[in-house]
Amino acid sequence: MGPVSYAAAVEVVLASGPDRAVLTVLADDAAPAEPVDVTAEQLPGRVADLEARHSPRWVWPDTARVYPRLLAAGVRVGRCHDLRLGRAILDPTHAAQPHEAAHDVHQPTLLDELTAQLDPVEAVAEHARQRTAVTAAPEPGRLRLLLAAESAGALTAAEMSHDGLPWDRNEHDRILTGLLGPRPQPGRRPAVLEDLARQIRHHLAAASLNPDSPAELLRALNAAGVEVRTTRKWELAQIEHPAVAPLLEYKKLARLLSANGWAWLDEWVRPVAGEQGRFHPEYVVGGVVTGRWATSGGGALQLPKQVRGAVVADPGWRLVVADAAQLEPRVLAAMAGDERMAEAARGADLYQGLVDQGIVDTRAHAKVAMLGALYGATSGEAGRLMPRLLRAYPRATGVVEDAARAGERGETVRTWLGRTSPEPPLSWRDAQHRASAEDAGADEVRRARQLVRDWGRFTRNFVVQGTAAEWALCWMADLRGRLRALGGSGTWPGPAGPAGPIGPIGPHLVFFLHDEVVVHTPEELADDVATAVQEAAVGAGRLLFGTFPAEFPLDVAVVRSYAEVG
DNA sequence: AATGCACGCCAC
DNA sequence: AAACGTGGCGTGCATT
């Protein structure tokens, strides 16, 4: 078989045959070309060749299964359409779960993993079905953008997982040792924790107390006359007792040790060279109902501020850290077309803007009120302040109030680009049904009302959190393109290379968390990267909201260590 | 010994 | 100060 050559190729469907990968080239205004079989060994080279000559959109069943293999072979692509993610958005109730094929009875072969076991004819047909579904949708343009952004996210996620977050293992050890004392033998408490435990036992007169056991701790506290119902830190913090201070300190440090201690470092940070390592979380694109990413492995969704000092750029490199300021309220103003709230958001600090418009008296109140509106607060300070927003910004708050009412009725809601919220579970409908029966008990009625309010808060937040996730996807996709233009698509020699860190030779994304990105870049390009991050944010705002005057300011920092931020 | 759940805390 | 959305995950403890 000679090299594939199609002047007008725009899309290549990658699927699996009986013992081969199958490439089907779809050219503009032409029937699908004859499928081309390639072996697993040939595939990366063939993909690289087509990518270099045609920059096609790769259409494949599951980026999370296909792309890591290509990345391992040193091959990167510009764009793709992920059929699994596309199906999940277009048909949420019938979407396949990720990695479904992994549960097949037979052992997956390398080719299975490369192509996720979707027959080429079926893959082409599914692709056509998805295109048709988009065209028939009420807002095809928005949906097309969402699918493109989701797939770009899938590429970015795989690349970030592959490249890893730069991690200084010695610095992490210094942080731990400074707070906990030297690394103890396995199964032993570090010295500082042991000392705190001794103090706690002394003050509670409980000689054998294990402070790690909530049940024992609660009993010991009550026996010592401390009237708490739980051992949560906020409840303990209100108590005046000599045991409280060491106990709170113990909880903080015990958490650090168990979540991001030496065991975590051993398990999750892969050594690269010298002190340098890489943390390789797995991002799960679309893993959250709202469209946010989830992660699995190493707790990447919750890297505590305490250990961020261990995130350190390689020598001669920098981290460009950027986060979108008050993203969700800004997204709400834009999707609602609320000019007055957008005006309050004109400056760098939206919350101060609310104060300046006379809605609330302090920035802290503005934040509490706004988050209360987004989350559906009903009590406390947030519940008291939120009505002011209803009066001041009826359009913006109307969007979340309407979403809440729809959820309370058991209806689905949609994000700006068209991601649909899930249906309430059957148990929810059952509860409503039972509560409306004539012989319904008071408990049943109360419980059903509770469930109604809960689901309303979910759909309320869904529209904003989901649209913010869409903005972030577009931001990242735009940024990825700009970084590639700055030289981020080449890689070091690879695993077989003689020395030096393995990874992209130019600026590349290394971390993403809802409204924040980190780029690892050669020092001399850091300013260009900072500019690219800003331009990408402007681009994302335009993509989603066109000419509506919404601003999405960023906090951007060029640093050696993640701890220098915030 | 393996599994599932509740708790509690971290992140945005 | 606590209740007000989305998650991951380690630990203790009960169940199987």
From TrEMBL:
Catalytic activity from the UniProt record: DNA(n) + a 2'-deoxyribonucleoside 5'-triphosphate = DNA(n+1) + diphosphate
SMART domains listed in its UniProt record: POLAc (SM00482)
Alphabetically ordered keywords of this record: DNA replication, Exonuclease, Hydrolase, Nuclease
InterPro entries xref list: DNA-dir_DNA_pol_A_palm_dom, DNA/RNA_pol_sf, DNA_polymerase_A
Highest taxon of the lineage: Bacteria
Gene3D superfamilies (alphabetical): 3.30.70.370, 5' to 3' exonuclease, C-terminal subdomain
Gene Ontology molecular function: exonuclease activity
Documented EC number(s): 2.7.7.7
Domain DNA-directed DNA polymerase family A palm: 304-525
The protein's name in its UniProt record: DNA-directed DNA polymerase
Organism: Georgenia halophila
